[in-house]
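quick one: MTE bound model?
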Amino acid sequence: MLIHISNPSDPKSWEITPESQYLSRREWLKNAGLMGAALALGTSVTPLQAGSSGWTSLLSDKLASLKKQPDAVGEPLTPYADVTRYNNFYEFGTGKTDPSENSGSFKVEPWSLAIDGAVNKPLKLNLEDVLKPHALEERIYRFRCVEAWSMVVPWVGFPLADLIRRADPTSSAKFVRFETLVDPERFPAQRFARSTIPWPYEEGLRIDEAMHPLTLMVVGLYGKELQPQNGAPLRLMVPWKYGFKSIKSIVRIELTEKQPNTTWQQLASSEYGFYANVNPDVDHPRWSQKRERRLPNSLWDPNWVPTRRFNGYEEQVASLYQGLNLKTHY
Ligand code: MTE
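yep, here:
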């Protein structure tokens, strides 16, 4: 996800190999000063105290009675090893394996989640209080990154709508803004003073998107607790939107009257829009969005599959966008 001024010698979108897409993005991040963050990673965080917390035991109890929803995707699952080792999580570095390699000592506690803004009952919850009232479900979703790779993942979570309702939104709540933790002790890339990403990572949804039954607050995957590289302890999953909307390690959910700023709009608004609905008819300025590499894959076997409108969830979500020009509201 990058800013780029095209010149005639640039490859055409159909000539770009997946690896070069990835490398050009890394190149942009390097120029932007983020790669240094990956190199400057330290290891001064305290090791995770596995199994000792109320959160860990509550989560494992809830996982034991997980409700599995029928598989509506009907495509092979992406192996656990790929889901947990091919990641985008810039707080841990910009390489695909940086998040798994640099998050081994990440602690999910202490943690608190604020739900505030246009609500009648502002909340500040510890992790146990976030989870207590909710039953966990497994939902198999397609997951499509704007970089044109995709996975099929059995996420574990509960509807975001149920969490937001606990704060009793007012009638002026039109949007929802999400914020990731800022803690340089836990996120090594946040220690880098020249980072171009203005932490915290921020995302936003319209209120009807946030309350849609497909929108999930995720606490696990593959029947296990969520790994740090995938956004522990709480991350969003909006399956009909590009992956960058699915913000990780959330500490604040703010209901707002105005459309919130998002990190990628601040960095490159001509490339990454607020809506970010998966759409094969609207290309990224530098590559086609008509197809995607389904993981696992390799350079020799890219495993291209066609991209679907709304990532295959058109029937469930298209009505949210009636009358909206999806080309200008990309
Ligand atoms: N959330 C935060 N806080 N920081 C990030 O860098 N990357 C986004 C999204 N959420 C990101 C984030 C992007 S670009 C993608 S594609 C997905 O997380 C990747 O999720 P995964 O690593 O679980 O596949």
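The longest strand covers residues 149-159.
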